[in-house]
Amino acid sequence: MKHTKRRQIQEKASQLLHESGITKAPIDVERIADHLNISVRRTPSEDDISGFLLRQPDGSTVIGVNTLHHPNRQRFTIGHEIGHFMLHNYDEVHVDRSVIKLRSKNSSSGEDQEEVEANRFAAELLMPRELLSKDVGKLLLTDFLDDRRMQQLAKQYGVSVQAMTNRLISLGYMSPNEFGGNEET
């Protein structure tokens, strides 16, 4: 993904957080959806379906979330679908299968640019650079190697350890070579 697109996504997510009045983690993604007049509906679904974005003819929008997935994954899915809403034009329904598989063949290779962008948006929304840099500034270098400390940081933001690790790598706090993360978060 080009640097200008990354910057654009960061700015849109940051502006949305500001407009929604959110200043601390964990980020209330349902409050953001509400701010955008998007209804969030939860329902059990097939395991490979994480969520969907539905723009209805009357102008209303619905995000569907699979209740069978872990709450952190549900939060990421909502952020991801908000990303599609903010970044991409879908006339009707957009279904995401396994949206959280950040290292899937298509998203990691860049073949499906819209999915990569929606993942980036979700990461920027759930783990905002500004908030995360303050919290990371309080850590010692050894904390990045401490599983318990990484779990605490991930819990503070309401995300998985994998998502937090990927985000820290993308922000340059950790090396992907050492930790096997994904730079697209």
What this model shows, in words?
The protein is an alpha+beta fold and 185 residues long. It has one domain: Arc Repressor Mutant, subunit A, CATH 1.10.10.2910. The protein contains nine helices and four strands; from the N terminus they run H-H-E-E-E-H-E-H-H-H-H-H-H. It has helices spanning 3-20, 29-35, 71-87, 105-109, 113-126, 129-137, 147-157, 161-170, 176-179, and strands at 38-43, 49-55, 61-66, 93-97. Strands 1-3-2-4 form a four-stranded mixed β-sheet, covered by helices on one side. Strand 2 (49-55) and strand 3 (61-66) form a beta hairpin. Helix 1 (3-20) packs across helix 5 and helix 7 crosses helix 8. The longest helix is centred in the first third of the chain and has 18 residues, at 3-20. It is globular, with a radius of gyration of 16 Å. Residues 99-109 and 180-185 have low confidence and may be disordered.
Helix content: 40-55%
Class by alpha and beta content:
alpha+beta
Sheet with the most strands, sense and barrel status: 4 strands, mixed
Tell me, what is the CATH class? Answer: Mainly Alpha
Low-confidence stretches: 99-109, 180-185
Oligomer: single chain
What is the rounded distance between the termini?
11 Å
Q: Tell me the domain tally.
A: 1
Question: Which strand order does the major sheet show?
Answer: 1-3-2-4
CATH architecture assignment: Orthogonal Bundle
**Would you give the CATH topology?**
Arc Repressor Mutant, subunit A
Mean pLDDT: 86
Q: Order of helices and strands, N to C?
A: HHEEEHEHHHHHH
